[in-house]
Design a protein that fits this description.
The complex is a heterodimer. Chain A starts with a helix and ends with a helix. Helices cover 80% and strands 0% of the residues of chain A. Chain A has 2 domains: 45 residues, no CATH class; 233 residues, MetI-like fold, CATH 1.10.3720.10. By secondary structure, chain A is mainly α. The longest helix of chain A is centred in the first third of the chain and has 35 residues. Chain A has 14 helices and no strands. By secondary structure, chain B is α+β, with helices and mostly antiparallel strands. Helix content of chain B is 27%, strand content 34%. In chain B, the strands form 4 sheets. Chain B has a 6-stranded mixed sheet, sandwiched between helices. A 5-stranded antiparallel sheet of chain B has the order 13-17-14-15-16, with no helix packed on it. In chain B, a hairpin with a 2-residue loop joins strand 14 and strand 15. The longest helix of chain B is centred in the middle third of the chain and has 18 residues. Chain B is elongated and about 75 Å long. The chains are: A mainly alpha, B alpha+beta. Chains A and B meet through helix 8 and helix 9 of A and strand 6 and helix 2 of B.
Amino acid sequence: MKSSLTFHKVIVGLLVMYLLIPLVGTFLFSIAGKWDHTILPESYTMDWYIELFQDERFYDAFRRTLFLIVMSVGLSVVIMLPTIFIITVYFSKWEGLLQAAAMLPYGIPPIVGAVGLIKVYSDGPIQIAGTPWILIGAYFITILPFMYQGIRSSLRTINAVQLVDAAELLGATKFQSFRTVVFPNIISGILVSTLLSVALLFSEFAFANLLVGGRFETIQIYLADKLNSSGHLTSAIVITYYSMILLLTGIVLKLTFRNEKNPVGSNKKRILSFFKKKYCNKNTAIEGEK
Amino acid sequence: MSYVTINQVTKGYENQVVLNDISLTLKKGEFATLLGQSGCGKSTLLRSIAGLEGVDVGRILIDGHDITNLSPRQREVGMVFQSYALFPNMTVFDNIAYGLKMKKVKNVKSKVKNMIDMVDLIGKEESFPHQLSGGQQQRVALARALVMEPKVLLLDEPLSALDAKIRKSLQKELKRIQKELDITTIFVTHDQEEAMTMSDRIFVMNKGKVVQSGSPSEIYTSPVNTFVAKFIGNYNVCNMEVFHKLVRSTELKGNEVAIRPEVLQLVSVGEDSLDIQENWGIKGFIKDVSMTGNVLRYEVETEESAFLVDYLHHRGEMFEQGARVQILVPKKECIIL
């Protein structure tokens, strides 16, 4: 018994090390001064971060990325939420069609998609190739599967169809029943889908580079550009960027735990079981170190 | 004077008929049950009355008003679902008050309080649905429907998700509340025992049609066809030719004969207590004995077919498996189908 427990701890420890070493290395490199022929850096400096945070281009890129994300995710919620709700509750025979449409982005590699998009939108009535707007459109499609699955399974978990039936029989209009009965019960599901989409779009490079490139520099394009100039600076960007993602993940986790106290929809737990597992692993690792 | 009228309602999905020309009427304050196996159309009929499903042909009237084309919220009917359908984000109080708030009724608080009192949920006002037991949740669902003072209360298998004991006590309570409020109620179930205990009138449905309607005892003692006889009370249904052979008499005419298991009696072969004026006798042997607490059920194999014979489980004489017996069939209890 005891030896098998030790064995498990060793495995988990190795796994955590495997996952953390690149990150720790990157972090060390981002604060390293001279680091040539020693295991740990010979000197430490915050210069790279200072340089990064003093670079106007970084802030601009960050702002642009934020703008793109808020626009695409916001648009996605505003359009997809009523669409999925209406199809699920009132036109269930078309559900298959919506599902197929939502899964389509998985089938098209970004490179192929980008070339097609450039061709279609570089002339004709809508000439938006090379502008951020085409990127918002592409991002909308990219996060479609996440939004669809998240909202759909939230609706299914609370049995939205029957709740709407019950509310309507009690005198609510269709809109009232959505607002007072369905929406409050799927809000945390929507939030989780939203945060996952944000995390995904933060690290999106292929579409951004192919569709707009340097004309609308996002954080990923900025990162790629800096990769050629200074490794230290790139590391600093990666660590900053990783901290942002960690923060997002933390928020998602917190939402999940709040759901457990008030178990309205258990589906979010399933979506986030990945995160939770990661979290649990870390706990085990800490115990193992004692 | 009929309060609820369903007039020649027909409904189908694609090429399947779900409701086939159904007509029925209910008096005010009546407790009616739609009884049938799953898929017989009873729930669809209930949902059509609620307005959650449309009908292809026919009309539905409540209190003299044609409601066939009204939306659910305009129909003034209340409904309780099998899976309760409580709003998970609201407390018991808010769940019950929901309809009143939507209709902007005054005195919400006192009305909800009265209702909570009636369904015996005092002290649970601030609980959320997931903190309640199944039985309690169903009480909330009932209160939520009743507080609106609906003209008709629709119950879609409301007790079938509960365990036997809670179910029995909720049956009684439901009946008490229904009588107290004198509310016209349509109850859907597939459990014939539940239908018998609760209803003033039962409508037995099969394949989208009402095959028989009447009081519970009418339905039980005089089924109109083989389906009702078998579904309602474990009747022994026997082909007439076979029956003629067994009793050596052609006195009865018709296609089939149905006999309830509890009117049959068993006597040992040789014991000569057969009153040939009143009874027929059929020889056989005990193939199996089973016991459901208060009832002993004998399966008696005769030369042509098997019969079920029910006895109350008295202390005393019991027939052993394999014993040769004679079944006494009272002539006046034979129902010709």
